[in-house]
Automatic annotation (TrEMBL):
Keywords from the UniProt entry: Oxidoreductase
Top-level taxon of the source organism: Bacteria
Lineage: Bacteria, Pseudomonadati, Pseudomonadota, Betaproteobacteria, Burkholderiales
Name of protein: SDR family oxidoreductase
Gene3D superfamilies: NAD(P)-binding Rossmann-like Domain (3.40.50.720)
Length: 263
């Protein structure tokens, strides 16, 4: 399906839409004629997005880790007769630091958002897409999905789940007309780092990739039914190295790199 062969009858839902990759997904899909439904926690930013992007027809504020909030989102789609053409599961966050020093409730919330919410929303929407015989799902993971990441341990583990789950679902649905793609970006200068608790992320300056280019890469991969996509040659080398190098070596290198953020 060509990227420009889209009319205003097509709907897209983007979670975590208030900044970074989520906002870029909104802009890019709006430019292609999609009618957008966006979610986020920040009501002011959602209102601003709706003002700036005219294709945003619903801006739903709430915490998707709350089962009631998630159920209401799906109920809103059903009650309005909205059949999504595109689902982008972008909402997620990480926590940086020694795992045992982190707040346990925050880590459970991380798991709820990065795993449970993504899974529940994907399954609900994918069933309808399969019945219709068409649809596109893009799940946002990370290059951290390919390696253990001391100091980002639970985040990396959650993204490993997203990677594995998305790959499996891609295979199950590949002949159904439903495209499932997982985007694994490297470091992107967004609000992720501040939320994670990293005061200075300039150590990764050499590896940072622009959010817009990463979002465009993800959409292109989704529309052409690629399974896994990583943007940038540095990140591709890191992923390849993590897959072929001994696990103990990957752990040691990952630990040293992430520990540099504590200095």
């Amino acid at each position: 399906m060509p990227l420009n062969d889209i009319n205003q009858e097509h709907w897209a839902l983007i979670t975590g839409a208030t900044g970074g990759l989520g906002l870029e997904f909104c802009k890019l899909l709006a430019a292609r004629g999609y009618r957008l439904i966006v979610t986020g926690m920040n009501t002011e930013k959602l209102a601003q997005i709706r003002e700036e992007i005219k294709q945003v027809e619903m801006a739903l504020a709430g915490d998707l880790t709350d089962p009631v909030c998630l159920a209401n989102l799906i109920k809103t789609l059903n009650e309005n007769g909205i059949k999504l053409e595109v689902l982008i599961n972008n909402a997620g966050f990480g926590l940086f630091g020694d795992t045992l020093d982190q707040d346990t409730s925050e880590n459970i919330n991380l798991i709820d958002l990065n795993i449970r919410t993504l899974t529940a929303l994907t399954l609900a929407i994918a069933k309808e897409m399969k019945a219709r015989g068409s649809g596109y799902i893009l799940n946002v993971a990370s290059i951290a999905a390919f390696m253990p990441c001391p100091s980002l341990g639970i985040y990396a583990a959650s993204k490993s789940y997203v990677l594995s789950f998305s790959e499996a679902l891609h295979e199950e649905l590949k002949t159904s007309g439903v495209h499932v793609t997982v985007l694994c970006p490297g470091p992107v200068k967004t609000g992720f780092w501040q939320r994670a608790g990293v005061a200075d992320n300039n150590h990764f300056e050499f590896a940072f990739t622009p959010a817009r280019a990463v979002a465009q890469c993800g959409l292109q991969a989704m529309f052409t039914n690629k399974t896994v996509v990583t943007y940038g040659w540095i990140n591709k080398i890191l992923v390849l190295t993590a897959q072929i190098a001994p696990r103990f070596l990957v752990r040691v290198i990952s630990k040293k790199v992430l520990q540099s953020l504590k200095n």
